[in-house]
Design brief:
Oligomer: heterodimer
Helix content of chain A: over 70%
Structural class of chain B: mainly alpha
Number of strands of chain B: 0
Largest sheet of chain A: none
Strand content of chain B: under 5%
Number of helices of chain B: 21
Strand content of chain A: under 5%
Order of helices and strands of chain A: H
Structural class of chain A: mainly alpha
Radius of gyration of chain B: 22 Å
Number of strands of chain A: 0
Radius of gyration of chain A: 16 Å
Distance between the termini of chain A: 53 Å
Shape of chain B: globular
Largest sheet of chain B: none
Largest interface: A-B, 20 and 23 residues
Shape of chain A: rod-shaped
């Protein structure tokens, strides 16, 4: 694989999978905060 | 009002992901990437996730949460005169369900056949399981004999109806929620296993190179942008009324915006996994030129790569029987998790008219079986319905935007999106997306697809409503549906709201 293809794979997979995982982490944190607020 | 609710935000999210991730992710996406030259296609596909799919998911979540009714009642709740729009959206998705259930049956059949292959590989006599396996058959012969038998597509279509209806019959918590808690994690695990196998094959790097080697000049081709938008619109399930239906059961303080972003990105994550499972496998086994040709092969009823080539390709890899089973099991899981959301959409609509869930599922399940039979038995009928109602979905997406514009995009945003329930505030960008971006995208898509029909698919008879891929057949079938819905609108309003004819909001 060329370096450009590896870089593009990192960008695309990073945006899609990284975004998905970051979103899950964000939702988990917000849910913890909500539960803490509600006691 | 719906009484059941999802027990947690995660249950709602799993259901939303189950709805979004369907056969289109595993079956259509790898082929469409190949047909559009690989990496360049991924850019518009990703951009339109944020410009079409996520805004429409947000709208659907918002309308479902506000109105707590199926598509017909939801549109009618926002504006009585728009009740027909909810009818169009609901029927359009139901019409897709009729043949999607047939497709689910194909997935079941191939999963069963690949299981037979595993058992045969372990030495279980071939006669122990009837129906035969995929292993060793001529490339297209299994598909041909399955489809030509007539009874097999019908039988497996029935299995699809029964499996989906049973889950919906169990209700929101015991049916939809419990099923998705098992199906979605299983689907992601199976896809990851398939990807690990594919990228570890000698020569698979050629496939990765093809997938990710950027050719920037290709982005100047408008068709790549329109294909990216089309794939995003069809794959995420945005504008189908399915998320609206699940939103009926969300808790009062559940978030809308972050949930929509997560569902959209989850859908694209699954698509990318599927592409990484399929394209490197094709390139590892075949010479590059033939690999591109195979990956682009549409085949009969778009079955080309998935149902005809994949079984042959997996014969060439060590452990192929197991990985073929894993592939088709993942495809079946994706199909059923989407199918149940479609059946629930229909059931929710009839329940709004006063039917119990049990009676509702009998009506909807029975209709899906009977009205799916022509697609199970006639490839041309299947293709016509796929053409008409897939494009109809784009119109459904526009109708959601029109409904919010009519209600007031700013009012909708302030009431439902930018409040304390939501983890992310959208701001006025939402108004711009709804009022301008979505209508422009719809116009570009519909003009392009109809131009394709006029210039490429059926130049001589593009106006003819009896042709499979014509503009005329779309206009005739959509028009008939709209006329029926408008004629019966007053009666429907009376049954749903008890105030026929009032134009109140």
């Amino acid at each position: 694989m060329s370096g450009a293809a590896v870089a593009m794979m990192a960008v695309i997979c990073g945006l899609v999978w990284g975004g998905f995982v970051a979103c899950i982490a964000f939702v988990m944190r917000r849910e913890r905060e909500r539960k803490a607020r509600k006691g | 009002m719906a009484k059941e609710t999802f027990t947690s935000r995660w249950s709602l999210l799993l259901a939303a992901l189950g709805m979004a991730i369907g056969t289109g992710n595993i079956w259509r996406f790898p082929r469409v990437i190949a047909q559009n030259g690989g990496a360049p296609f991924l850019i518009p596909w990703l951009i339109f996730l944020f410009l079409w799919s996520i805004p429409l998911l947000i709208i659907e979540f918002g309308i479902g949460k506000k109105t707590r009714m199926g598509t017909i009642g939801a549109f009618g709740s926002l504006n009585r005169r728009h009740t027909w729009m909810g009818g169009f959206v609901g029927f359009c998705t139901l019409a897709i369900t009729f043949y999607y259930c047939v497709v689910t049956g194909w997935c079941f059949r191939y999963t069963f056949a690949s299981l037979v292959d595993i058992l045969r590989g372990w030495g279980v006599p071939g006669g122990a399981l009837r129906g035969g396996g995929l292993w060793g058959s001529e490339r297209a012969s299994f598909w041909t004999s399955f489809n030509a038998s007539g009874w097999q597509p019908v039988l497996f279509h029935l299995f699809g109806v029964l499996a989906g209806s049973y889950i919906i019959y169990r209700g929101v918590v015991n049916g939809i929620e419990r099923a998705n808690r098992i199906l979605l994690p299983a689907l992601f695990v199976l896809l990851v296993i398939a990807v690990a196998r594919a990228v570890s094959l000698p020569g698979s790097s050629a496939g990765l190179e093809y997938l990710f080697e950027m050719r920037w000049g290709a982005l100047l081709d408008y068709r790549i942008w329109l294909q990216g938008l089309t794939q995003s619109a069809w794959s995420t399930g945005a504008g189908w009324g399915l998320i609206l239906t699940y939103a009926v059961y969300m808790r009062d303080d559940d978030d809308i915006v972050a949930n929509s972003v997560l569902a959209g990105l989850g859908n694209n994550s699954a698509s990318l996994l599927a592409a990484l499972a399929v394209i490197p496998t094709v390139f590892a086994i075949l010479p590059a030129a033939q690999a591109v040709e195979v990956a682009q092969d549409t085949g009969p009823l778009s079955t080309g790569m998935t149902f005809i080539w994949i079984p042959k390709l997996f014969e060439a890899i060590p452990g192929g029987r197991l990985f073929l089973f894993i592939f088709f099991l993942a495809l079946s899981i994706a199909a059923i998790s989407s199918l149940i959301s479609m059946i629930e959409m229909g059931t929710r609509n009839v329940m709004d008219f006063g039917l119990t869930r049990k009676k509702g599922i009998a009506v909807v399940g029975g209709s899906i079986f009977v009205l799916g039979l022509p697609s199970a038995l006639s490839p041309s009928f299947f293709q016509n319905q796929d053409w008409v109602w897939s494009l109809g979905l784009l119109l459904s997406g526009l109708l959601f935007a029109v409904s919010v514009i009519d209600y007031g995009a700013e009012k909708f945003r302030v009431e439902l999106l930018d409040n304390e329930d939501n983890d992310i505030r959208l701001g006025r960008i939402f108004n711009v997306l709804v009022k301008y971006v979505i209508p422009v995208e719809f116009t570009a898509l519909i003009v392009w697809w109809f131009t394709q029909a006029i210039l490429v698919y059926d130049p001589g008879r593009w106006w003819d409503p009896l042709r499979t891929f014509s503009v005329g057949t779309c206009v005739a079938q959509w028009g008939l549906l709209v006329v029926i819905m408008i004629v019966f609108q007053r009666r429907i309003i009376g049954l749903l709201f008890g105030d026929p004819g009032k134009g109140e909001r």
